[in-house]
Structures are given as C-alpha cells and as structure tokens.
Amino acid sequence: MSNWAEGIEHASITAENREAFNTAASKFESQSDMCVGYMELQKTAGKPFKFPDSMDKLPDDVSRSDFTSQANKLLGREFAADIAGLSDLNMKLGSTNEDAIDEVAANALKQMVVDKVIDKKQAQALVEFHNKSVGTARTANTTAATAAEEKATVQRATDVAACNTALVTHFGNQSEVDKQTVLLHRALVNNVGCSVDEAADIAEFLKEGEGATNVALRRVLLTQLAPLAAEAGSHFGKGGTPPSAEETIKEQLPATAKAMNW
C-alpha cells in the first residue's frame, strides 16, 4: 500500500475529499504520527497565528505566493501589475498648481511604482509628497525672484536719482540740465547726422537704459554736444535763446519727446 491512509474509512471521508485527505495524511509516516500531529495542533487552538520565520519555511512557490497575497490583503495593501492598474492614482494630490499633468513624468513615476513593487497607498503618499515639495520649491523661487526684482527696482531708482543729482550739481540746477538735454537731442539730429529715430533711441537709452545711471556718459554728452546746437540755435528763438524743452522736443523731435514722456 503506497499510503497507509488509503485504507482508512470514515463517514467524513467522501469521494470528493478522499484525495485531499490522502494528500494531507501522506505527510505523516503513520496513523500514530498523524494523531500526535493533531495533538500538537490542538495546543495552538485559540492562540494567535504565528508567521513563519522566513518564506523558505513554506513548501513551494505557490504556497509562498498565496501566503503573500493573503498577508497583503490582511494588511490592506494592493499592488498593480502594470501602470494601467494605477489609473486611479490622483496625480495632482498635494499640488496647488493648476497646470496640466505632465503625462510623461506621471507614467515614469507609475512605472517605478510597479518595478519597485510599491503598494498603491504608498504610491499615492509618494505623489502627494512630491507635489508638495515641488510646490514649496516653486513658492520659494517665486518669492526670491520677486524680492530680487523689487530690490533691483529700488536700486535702479536710487542710482538714477544719484545720477541726476550729480548732473544738477555739475550744471548748477535742474533747469540747466533740462536745457542742455534739449540742446543735446537737437545736436544729435542737426549737427552730428543722427536720424530722428536714432535720436529717439539715444533718448530712450539715456532715460530708461543703462545711460540713465551713467553720470560720466551723460555729463560728457551734455557738455560736448549740447554747445553745438546752442551755437547754431539763433533761429530757434529771439536772441538765440532756445524755446522750452517741451516745445522744442514736441515740435522738432516727436519720437524723442515720446521716449522722454514729454
């Protein structure tokens, strides 16, 4: 007889479960061993389930797979076999940014979750952590950029004011600076061959560009070019006195007047 259990008859052993009984009984060498095994099993009745010390204690891969599946189910862990199984992940969780989701980056993260066998709850927590980190960094960068821009604006206003103050000191008063500025732009067109547009560009550079803070450049241009227009300017006003800055610029150099907000 290949298996001592094959000859055992009992009301609970039916044709449907005979094979299962024989297979279970075959793990014992005799009926006595099976009885002893049952006694040992009774000792564990009502006691907490004891996990194996290692997966190697389980007899085969199927048993290990079943054990892992049941343990994950008991712990509420769910794993995706591919990225399609992660379609219910909320990829915007933790994000305050209203931009569209980067599908390439999202799929790369999902693939990593599948490859590293990360359960879906942990994957969702990972997405939230990532989005919050990116949001925090974006806010910090925006704040820093705004602060830098405000600082640069204040510094430029300070530098422009300092440049103007230096010119007022050099020429004596603001009216004289304005007068020399008008003569400078008149000289650019009438005496040194600049076109109206070129004169307007220079005016823009001196008012809004780097020239607005360059004391030496503005002083040299005003002292060297303005006199050229003054010497040839008798036809602009009685006794050679030029008209007001606004009148001259608006009448003869409209583009320059626009650049200077006159």
Oligomer: single chain
* Helix count from the secondary structure assignment: 10
Query: Into how many domains do the coordinates divide?
Result: 3
**Which percent bin holds the helix content?**
55-70%
Cα Rg: 45 Å
What letter string, H or E per element, gives the SSE order? Answer: HHHHHHHHHH
Give the distance, in angstroms, between the N- and C-terminal Cα atoms: 117 Å
Q: Which blocks of ≥5 consecutive residues have pLDDT under 50?
A: 234-240
Biggest sheet, in brief? none
Output the structural class: mainly alpha
Mean pLDDT across residues: 81
Query: What best-fitting shape do the alpha-carbon axes yield?
Result: rod-shaped
Extended strand count: 0
Strand content: under 5%
Mind explaining what this structure looks like?
With 262 residues, the chain is mostly helical. The protein has ten helices and no strands. Residues 234-240 have low confidence and may be disordered.
Set out the fold topology.
Elements: H1 18-25, H2 31-43, H3 61-75, H4 103-115, H5 120-171, H6 174-190, H7 196-207, H8 215-231, H9 245-252, H10 254-259
Q: What attributes characterize this protein structure?
A:
single chain; 262 residues; mainly alpha; 3 domains; 61% helix; 0% strand
